[in-house]
Structure formats: C-alpha cells, structure tokens
Amino acid sequence: MKKIYEPKSQQQKIGYLIEEIGELQSALGKTLRWGWGSVNPELPPDEQETNASWVIRKIVDVKRGLKFIEEELNKLWNPNQELK
C-alpha cells in the first residue's frame, strides 16, 4: 500500500478494515461457487488471478487492517487498566 493511501484517523482505519473484510468475503464467496483454481473470465488475461491468490491477497489486507486497529486500541487500553 502506498503511504498516501494509508488510513490516518481512527475512523479511516476502521473503515479500511471493514472494506477489506468485505473484499475477503467476496473472494471467499466466489471460491465457494467456482473453486480455488478459478479465475474471473471478465478480467483481461494479464490481470487474472486464481481465487486462491485473491483470497491470500485479501487475507494480507485484513491482517494489515487488524494491525491498524490494534495500534489504535493500544493507545486507548492497557490490560491492567480500564479503557480511556
């Protein structure tokens, strides 16, 4: 992800995570329908990827989003104290 597109505010970070979870759901749904090795025939051949690759890419994005949220929560919460 280019630095310019990284979410900055807490709201943007939450939005990023929600968006990426939705994209992972979409990738998994297509995988259930068409299988791991299927590709989107509507895309040009040089842009096609298998559903397995798509799912892995989306998992990486969700993990990045979770890290953003974890960093925000760590600013607000310590296990030894109440939320601020």
Strand content: under 5%
Q: Are there runs of 5+ residues with pLDDT below 50, and where?
A: none
The helix-and-strand class reads mainly alpha
Order of helices and strands: HH
Alpha-carbon distance between the two ends: 31 Å
Shape: elongated
Number of H/I helices: 2
Average residue-wise pLDDT: 93
The major β-sheet equals:
none
Kindly provide the radius of gyration, computed on alpha-carbon positions and rounded to a whole number of angstroms: 16 Å
| Helix fraction by DSSP (H/I, runs of at least 4) | 55-70%
Strand segment tally:
0
Can you offer a commentary on this structure?
With 84 residues, this protein is mainly alpha-helical. The chain has helices spanning 10-34, 51-76. Helix 1 (10-34) runs antiparallel to helix 2. The chain is elongated and about 50 Å long.
Task: Supply the key terms.
about 80 residues; mainly alpha
SSE map:
Elements lengths: L9 H25 L16 H26 L8
Helix pairs in contact: 1-2
Entry summary:
The chain is mainly α and 84 residues long.
